[in-house]
Amino acid sequence: MNSFLGTFRSLGPAKLGAIAAISAGLLAFFIYLSAQLATPELALLYGDLDTQDSGRIASILDDMKVQYELSPDGGRIMVPAAQVGRLRVAMAEEGLGVSIMLKFLSGRPRCISSGKVAKARKARANSSEKREIGFKASTLNTWYREETMKAPATIPVI
What we know:
- By secondary structure, the chain is mainly α.
- Helix content is 63%, strand content 7%.
- Strands 1-3-2 form a 3-stranded antiparallel beta sheet, with helices on one face.
- Strand 2 and strand 3 form a beta hairpin.
- Helix 5 packs antiparallel against helix 6 and helix 6 runs antiparallel to helix 7.
- The longest helix is centred in the N-terminal third of the chain and has 26 residues.
């Protein structure tokens, strides 16, 4: 033990300071790394929300004791990636999916390139509507047909 302390005494203050700085940097790095590994990977639950919808969803997530992040503008809610599907079903059971899906579909698409896009949107709307409680299937289908006939066909600019 005396030889170990003798070695440190012989190094001088500059080298001891450098060793201390490197040790502190390594300690800070490992603390940061362990904090990042302990935080679950977050995925988007819902995006492009207004403050009323995001407030309702946040209160439900608080009641369920789910960790979430709300974007500064309140338009995006991020939750642990492993829980996204379960939470979307829970939100649909609460009746929140209808308004969010209708807002998504009612926004004018930036481009309508083919019938495949329209079919994909219709399939997505139908699968979401089947999960909704108390929502009539014919309402969304009728609304969707009317909106797609009004939408102008444009060619995307690349």
